Amino acid sequence: MSEQTTEMAPAQSRSEQAVRIIVHEHQALWRVLDLLDQLLSDMNLNDQRPDERLLTTIFDYIEHFSQRVHSTPTDIELYKRLSEKSPETAPLLEKLARGYVVGHEKLVELRELLAECEKRWPEGREEFSHALARFTEALRKHIRKEEGVVIPRARKLLTEEDWQQIIEARDVENDPLFGERVREEFRELRHQIVSYTPEKFGGLGLKHADRVTAPHAEEEMLSIKGLVTSYGQIEVLHDVDIRINSGEIVSLVGANGAGKSTLLMTISGLQPVDRGSISFEGKDLGKISTDRRVAQGIVQVPEGRQVFKDLSVHDNLLMGAYTRGRTSEVMDDIERMYTRFPILRQKHHNLAGELSGGQQQMLAMGRALMARPRLLLLDEPSMGLAPLIVEEIFNIVKELKKEGITIFLVEQNASQALALADRGYVLETGKVVIEGTGRELLSNEKVREAYLGM
User: Fold this and answer.
1) Which biological process terms from the Gene Ontology are attached to this UniProt entry (predicted)?
2) How large is the average pLDDT for residues 170-180?
């Protein structure tokens, strides 16, 4: 009899198992909304300047859920099956699904208002405060609808077979509520929120930089004029002109052998300049050694990752901070790298050579970030990686931009590189042949034919 009970228990608990997952995510959202109310009150009543990093992380958490839920209920297995069993519920599910899309648009607006509030404080407070209050109230109503209508109807109408299919769904694109990878990403973002939240609001109070936006966006950071460099008698770059402004992502695309990596090595000081100039924040880099360039904030993640394979993951990260010494700040930054790249914490005793290609790329990026770059040079970060890892790498690049790091991205994956970019350049046989905004280059017929396969 006990054996029979053991076999039947999973079947009897399928619906409850699925509902627990939903309720767990909703409980997390309720806690985040309560925290937003506390931060809003602190800002308005106590004149507390907003913590841009904490608020951005909260927005990332909410947006992450919104992005995983597409534009129709059929993208969520639960919504799909409930619509089939209860056609009268379909309009509500459509409305809830549209709410995710509208919510995403509102988050974009909130990020802009937050950056403006931080820039003009306290003048921008009122507009940001009102927009945030409206957003949190709308999200509360959305959750109440799911908890008060969707879940009770699903419990009543869906069969155990339906619930089993819902639980077994694992495609992160088709089932955002139940994909294991997505739930893990939610957990990591919640961990960051708890870490950054002040102790007075029940968090850990981890010390961190409050600002995430570049303080002087639009100011010229790097200027390359008439650059020529050669390997022996062979000229590789021919009169290259490139400008990178503070806070931008600038992408450089081109075929193999176009000179993209050579350009990055020249900026880093690993390749000599024959003619022309490179200046960083008004300083002539020709007079600055390679190691001093790193100390001033120019840091490269090389093509092929090039981690120190015979050193541990932890020691690789320490090597990234070699210009800073062994200070408490360095150890704090290592902890931040482990938070940003959880796999590195798990593998911190492993030799770097034992890691997979994707893990080594995370390590190479973490090592570069340990130098606290202001201009990050990324050389083919997606090369040789699986599609899921490529997606993660580009998500990290977007996060780094939000944190105020200026990025020069060299990439053969032109579609993703230009989609990320504020501006871009096309390099052919050592010459810049096209430049423009990322959107302009994506729609350029020559670029589409040569690099996007269209």
Assistant:
1) L-amino acid transport
2) 43
